[in-house]
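Late entry, written up from scratch paper. The run itself happened at the end of the previous shift, but nothing got recorded in the book at the time, so transcribing now.
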Amino acid sequence: MRKQFALIWCDTCGRVTRGARPGTDWRRQLLVCAATAGLWLLVWLVIALRNRARPYTCRYCGSTGRAIERPNRESALVILGLVALAVVLALLLWLAIRHPL
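Output as recorded:
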């Protein structure tokens, strides 16, 4: 599993340190999404949001800390996932209208 790192303030250690939390391996998620014709996008979004909600842990004591800086790429990936989900849903709707059962 991929990890995400940021500077955090650890209350237990009383210092700024590098914290880690679970991240989303976007390459693997993209591969599964392509294999399932976009149906994996919803699961990918849930995984990304769940990992984003988890706190960073101190690398020295293991307690959670407040992030001082947040990775900017994470927000862009969530927005990209939402846009891709909207495109897939629009395509499925178009196909359903064009070829009714």
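DSSP finds three helices and four strands in the chain.
(Scratch paper discarded after transcription.)
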